[in-house]
Amino acid sequence: MNTRREKPNVLIADDSAVMRTLISHFITKLDHNVLTANDGDACIHMLNTEKIDLLLLDLNMPGKNGMEVLSYIQASGMTVPVIMITASDDISQAVQCIKMGAYEYLTKPVKNDRLEITVSNALSESNLKKKVRLLEKELKQQNIFRRIYGGSTSLKKCIEQAMHVMETEVNVLVIGESGTGKELFAQAIHSGSKRKSGPFVTINCAAITNELADSLLFGHVKGSFTGANSDHIGFFEQADGGTIFLDEIGDMSLEIQAKVLRVLQERKIRRVGEKKERSVDFRLISATHKDFSDAIKSETFRADLYYRLEEYPLFIPPLRERKEDIPLLANHFLESFCTANDIEPLTFNKSVLEKFSEYHWPGNIRELQNIVRRAAINRSGSEITSVPLLLQSTLQGKSAQPIPPAPTVTEEPPPPGEIKVPVSAVTPLATADESKELLLKNAELQAIIKAYELTDGNQTRTAEILGISRSSLYRKLKKYGIEKNLSLSVTKSL
Prior knowledge:
It is a single chain. By secondary structure, this protein is of the alpha/beta class. The chain folds into three domains: 9-135, Response regulator (Rossmann fold); 153-317, P-loop containing nucleotide triphosphate hydrolases (Rossmann fold); 402-494, Orthogonal Bundle (Arc Repressor Mutant, subunit A). The chain has 19 helices and 16 strands. Strand 1 (9-13), helix 1 and strand 2 form a beta-alpha-beta unit. Helix 2 runs parallel beside helix 3. It is extended and about 95 Å long. The two termini are 60 Å apart. Mean pLDDT is 83; it is low at 399-432 and 484-494.
């Protein structure tokens, strides 16, 4: 193991060549690297271009003097410790330097033992502060990104990039496939920004129609149109002092794009039915799963708006490119599901996690969460040993394995108060393709029934477990002939 210590870089800024030589010789004997500057301007240049661990700064120099250099360091937020060295023994001047952030104030001639102790203490304290800042950064990162799970290199890179941009006011464009967690990253950036105490307003761009755009985005006043019975504050005004998140902005119509561009340029909005303009102060984060280059070429997305959105692009990798995160995510979703549904802790068999890693995950993290829920619903014990049929059939198809024969369906009279699933809903078919379709259909039906039983017929919770909307659940219940107001039990073999 390489335990070689990296030597600290000490910058000596003094207009006297003799003093620079004497101090340089002494600092070199302390086993430190030495850099020199003969005036204040050269000193500032070195601070901006080199990694400086300690600055020994003369007070009286041509150009910018030591006090001006110290003021520059303070204003720019630099953390380099500064030891002032001067021939002046003016106490008031020394006090002023310390107030401005200087570590120590030494008067010439400086004794070697005093300089050695001061340099050593300044470097030790600086190293300690660096460790504290690093720890604070790690703790802040853990807190802000606590909802984003994974340890893959690609995910860590995304988090690091988000950390860099979050404290700025730069517009961020989060790019990634559906289900990769774009909104979680947007929320994390807001939580780590200077606007964290302000609102975080999310706009689903695909859901905004041209007819409602002005009212939804900018608001309206009472009586401005039929049905406007009260004043309404639009999304941009709601985000004043905070962050506005334009989700799936690639689905926004050209007409609405023009209106959004104007707000980004002028930072002003006008409510429908109102003449005066209102200033709005917001930070913009947007997200898309689309390739803007094609949209711009086909003139379905404005290039001028795109360049305003993409001041800082953040690419979220798909789940198939961070397979080492799959077991961690699967176990997290399983634990969360058990906790939310008051179920005894469950575990995955190793073979199941291996199958998860083999799968392509076109729906990314959202699909994984849904599959985990279905696996938990279909469990036969405390250990989950099989994956849902939907995933299994996909894996079989990829490996060119034969599809199992379609199961037979038998009809039996249902016990009192229970549901009979119509045989017509799951009639087995003859061909291999139709058999595969049947497997998928049965898997969906089984998942719905198990979820329905688990929630005692609560449609909202059933839909949440299945990862679908209530309207989609209702359509599926109707499709399979299941009466929604009865408890469910399947009395057939699948």
